Amino acid sequence: MAAIQTISRARPGSTRRQVFNLAWPAVGEQLLNTAVGLTDVFLVGNLSARASAQLGYTSAVALASAGLANHTIWLITIMFMAVAIGSTALIARATGSGDQARVQNILGQSMIIALAIGLIAVVLAIPLTRPFLTLLGAPVETLPLSERFMRIVAPSFLPVALLFVGMACLRGVGDTRTPLFIMLGVNGVNIIVSWLLINGNLGLPALGVDGAAIGTAIARGAGGFVVIGLLLRGHSGLRLTAKLRPDGPILRRILDIGLPAAGEQMVFQLALLVFTRFVTGLGAVTYAAHNVTITIESISFLPGMGYAAAASTLVGQALGARSPRQAEDFAYEALWQGGLMMSLAGLMMVIFPEPILSAFTNDPMVVEAAAGPLRAAGLVQPALAVSFILLGSLRGAGDTRWPLFSRLITAWVIRLPLTFVLVGWLEMGLAGIWLAMCIDFTCQALLALWRFGSGRWKRIEI
């Protein structure tokens, strides 16, 4: 009930503190969630000469294989994130209204769906891996390693689904610190196991890519069991009972909110698949420059993702408490704080592109090719902040169809046609790629501003 009282008794000047207190652990969680995949990429990218000779493949092949496998895993986790978004929105709304019985029911129904989609992921992951990687244009030598990575990781998808959805339920009641601590543990386990097994440290066998897969599976799987243990015991006002019975209306509401969010990501990933084909056709150095810029940008917008998660919770709780004005204040405060952080990061990218790039690659040709795109990425950070945080606020209100609609417009109607003209026709190369991306991000920010400013999200009943 504490979260309800905080929302309903918010005093002038306390909004900033509430947003910050909820957002900073969410930013840390997003960073740590990203770090699991980055750890795999870093460690296999530094495969020792001894391990490479023993395993029969180079660190470059290992790096590509682990990267492709992690990309496949990301697509699978989109299903988990869809349920997570629906769970956060519904639990936040019920928490704000003070309906604790409904909160517990939504928790139980969320776990039922998580179990179902986790089992589906376990069954489908392995047979779908090779067709997907082939569609991506994966090099032939990476396919066996990427497939083996997936065979090792696939059994963990069931507890991983529970991890994602359980942490989303905790965020819904306003607890963003527990997910942060869980992800700290997940990263610690992943780093230790992967470090031991990839190069065969402390006398253990060198397993290379397989070692990275084992570390990922153990770490994230253990995180799922920890979440379930906390919820079964009772944590942050949530208590999961072993006797779960399907509740059709609640299940439908979770999916009604979550499925458009999954559709949004799928629409974007399919567009990205076509978009990537343009980039790969520009040559190895250009492709490397694009990838390193994307990596830096993905780190720079983590504050936006964290503040989006905080805004989603606070907007949902305020609407549940029948305080749409407070919901609006929370969203704009989150935008101000998160936007300031991302804008400062963008300024560093504009002023110091070469030193930043040199921290990620020692190839001078790649640094030179990536300097312009990184400046462009820095300039567009404020637009990305608007897009991330206001769309997160809309999702917290249950308005998940608009982000899907806007993604369809910006990715398929704006970005891809522009890329065809700028790269395929005008032959602008990487500059054309990033110009199309920046226009896409700017248009998405304008659409998010228009939708949020219309106030229609305040009238959505969930």
Can you walk through the features of this model?
The structure is a single chain. The chain is an all-alpha fold and 462 residues long. The protein folds into two domains: 22-246, no CATH class; 259-462, no CATH class. Helix content is 82%, strand content 0%. The protein contains 18 helices and no strands. The protein has helices at residues 2-8, 14-45, 49-55, 59-97, 100-136, 143-153, 157-172, 177-198, 209-233, 248-280, 284-300, 302-320, 324-351, 353-358, 364-379, 381-396, 401-425, 430-454. Helix 2 (14-45) packs parallel to helix 8 and helix 4 (59-97) runs parallel beside helix 6 (143-153). Mean pLDDT is 89; it is low at 1-6.
Per-chain topology:
Layout: H1 2-8, H2 14-45, H3 49-55, H4 59-97, H5 100-136, H6 143-153, H7 157-172, H8 177-198, H9 209-233, H10 248-280, H11 284-300, H12 302-320, H13 324-351, H14 353-358, H15 364-379, H16 381-396, H17 401-425, H18 430-454
